[in-house]
Amino acid sequence: MIFQDIKKEISKIIVGQQEMIESILIALLAQGHLLLEGLPGLAKTTTVNILAKTLGIDFKRVQFTPDLLPSDIIGAQIYDMSKNSFYIKQGPVFTNLLLADEINRAPAKVQSALLEAMQERQVTIAESCYKLPTPFIVMATQNPIEQEGTYSLPEAQLDRFMMKILLDYPDINDEFEILNRAEKNFDIEIKQVADAKTIENAKNEVENVHIDDELKRYILHIVFSTRKHQNLMYGSSPRGSIDLLKTSKAKAYLKGKDFVTPKDILEVVKPTLRHRVILTYEARAKNITPDYILDEIIKELPIP
Q: Which of 111, 180, 194, 250 could cross-link with 198 by S-S, CB 3.0 to 4.6 Å?
């Protein structure tokens, strides 16, 4: 499978972080957006950059800062004095893979500029709408520990991300390998092993992966349980149900299967739903996490 070749190319430089790599491929197959949350130095930006090279698709990176403007993302209408007319200057959002680096450093007005692009795959500049290229995927990173100069993402925008991945430090063996590679300090060539057409064909194959009606009901039971859990102020939206269906099918496809099993669903529940639920104040005071609540829900529900 071509996606094994993509993993191989990424692993030439990235050590470990298998969940991140797998989730990026799932987001790519399901045509969804991805939020990577982790401390600095965990290769978030590097991984996305390498992915673009292996796919041979257009890639742009925006470093989010407090002084960023919406026009810096989507573009603007510019006046040309020599022609006495206006023209549209397209922003970096017009790409296949947009890396929104440290997205929580920009204020809500800038973050909201991405909403239309993420949901409708189009942007509105002046009085005209412009379609974005296919595929179009936003991969955003954020640092969870810094408070100064950061802004929490609005719930409406969080819901547009198909998955949220929490990154941790590498284990001692992986970091030992990182040290060895850093010591050698040689250039590694990343090969292009796919293209936009390959992604589109794979996306169509994922859509044809079979999922039984009982498993669809299982997905709905999980989502509905978040809406009535005592430690949650708000549960997942219907978009969470749709994305859990899509990520389950993509997960099964990456395993080389043409059907979804309960295990496939369970492996993507937390990345797909953890950012779509809002804890009560009491739960936050007790340091309860969304992942803990999702684990509780999974244990209580019978597996089909």
A: 194
